[in-house]
Amino acid sequence: MNISKLWEEYGGELNGYLRKTARNSSDAEDITSEVFLRALKNQVLLDGMTNQQCRLWLYTTAKRIVIDQARRKRLNSRVQLIPDQVEDDLSGVAVSQVIGLLPDELQDIFVMRYFSDMDSTQIGQQLGLSPATVRTHLRKARKLLQNYWNSHSGGTM
């Protein structure tokens, strides 16, 4: 489907949806622009889709951009907050360094749970995961952290 046609049909609708989802109208406009920039890059893929499939692709892409931005903001704020929280507590610094060794998805979920006090339902809603999947990721993160800590400290957590 032609990108200008997609813009005419879904640009305003998508922007309206993003105004409700994003923190402000400027972010919504930026995300809308990014979605259509990606649509332009993937025009060959979109050409083979129906109107409804294109609409779904646009909304899915928008949702992924919103999630990616939220992750980036959380990671940036975490990097800035951890030193203030732990100040001279070297064990806190060690823990934050070990957390940094987790895969990105596990890292995000772990920080959201234990540093932002979010429950598995809230985390799942924010990341588009079921609460059960969030709990599974948390178990995996705790196990990886415990294994790393035990192998490098010679003790237990």
Structure in words:
Helix content is 82%, strand content 0%. With 157 residues, the protein is mainly α. The protein folds into two domains: 1-86, Orthogonal Bundle (Rna Polymerase Sigma Factor, Chain: A), CATH 1.10.1740; 88-157, Winged helix-like DNA-binding domain superfamily/Winged helix DNA-binding domain (Arc Repressor Mutant, subunit A, Orthogonal Bundle). The chain starts with a helix and ends with a helix.
Observed structural traits:
0% strand; 82% helix; Rna Polymerase Sigma Factor, Chain: A; 157 residues; Arc Repressor Mutant, subunit A; single chain; mainly alpha; 2 domains
How do the strands and helices of this protein lay out in sequence?
Elements: H1 3-21, H2 25-41, H3 43-47, H4 51-86, H5 90-99, H6 104-114, H7 120-127, H8 131-153
Would you kindly provide a brief summary of this structure?
The chain has 157 residues and is mainly α. The protein has 8 helices and no strands. 82% of the residues lie in helices and 0% in strands.
